[in-house]
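Appendix B. One record, verbatim.
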Amino acid sequence: MPAPNEPSAQNHSGAQNDVSVASEASQPSATTQPAASAARDVTDASAERAHRARSGRRAEMLPGLLLIAATGVALVLANSAASGAWHGVVEARLGPLTVHEWVAEWLLAVFFFVTGVELREEFSRGSLSTPRRALTPIMAALGGMVVPAVIFVAFTAGGSAAHGWAIPTATDIAFAVSLLALVAPGVPAPARAFLLALAVADDLFAMIVLAVFYTPGLHPTIVAVALGLLIGPWVRPRLRRMLQQLSMWIVVPAFALVSAGVPLWGGGAGEVSDAAVGGGGAGAVALGADPVFFGVFLGLVVGKPVGIILATWIVQRIGRAWSVSRARRAGTAVVQRTPASVSWPDLWVVALLAGVGFTMSLLVAQLAFSGGGADAVLHTEHATLGVLAASFVAPVLAAIAYRLLRRRRK
């Protein structure tokens, strides 16, 4: 049994312990200080990563903004009192070629060389390096080419303008990524990665189409892509970055400057002959407009996203059926996923933005209708207007889809 005075001793001891605890609580302990320091380090690291992410998005926006500015300058000059002087500069001859030809063929070769290097990189170590990773973006790219081509042919069937079927099939990878950072800055990383993979696969198919259907002989752009594919692994990182910067900041804006300057009115689209338009464009001709514009515009704005989503859905359905079959045999559950865990709403944002064709579409338009008469000139102008209009509307639709998506998630 305890002695009668034992509780008081215990109470005294407890009181001393309470004072000791209170004293320790009033001062940071040796174990508390490292924990607080570690928490601050984690917070600082998170803030630093967020700052780098914002800086990266701003850096991605700038080439797109420069491209928009160059396009705007070209349109203003082509539709002002300085139009004659501007076209005189663009069509002035420097040796065997005009200024426009030097830029569109030889200077643009830098852009295509960089594209070839990036294609080799993606197939070697990137998003297209294995069949499993490459299947969905490759099929999505094919869907995003077939549907726009069908739409264009539906408008121009039976006439010489149908030769431009490939104009709305391309996605401008640099412009699309820049605009993604501008119109959908909070889009998840997997969605951005899917856009990159899709655009890279799209570029590859566009190169094949360009070589087979529009460039008999060795066009400088095709040679540049081939060189990029062949010597890509041996290009030093510093040289590669320099060429990428040259392409983004000089080559592509210069191409926009000499190619986007088309008249926004006048020229009478109704002057296009019935033979050039074809039976499929009769309704458009009755309205006094060249159906080439509508074929390009709707092909990019409507055909691109519909083709990408449809192809992705088909691949996922086939993949799910295969997974279900395997799961039943193994007795496991099946989880349905979109490519790289991208949600379907995010996929719609990316698919809408893929309607920005720009560089490749403008080049195909010039090659498709080169060497013709007045009809070919009008077709080129209207195709260019269709590309420019789509490159404006597609990001607007992507921005609206992104805002609706964010509102729905809140």
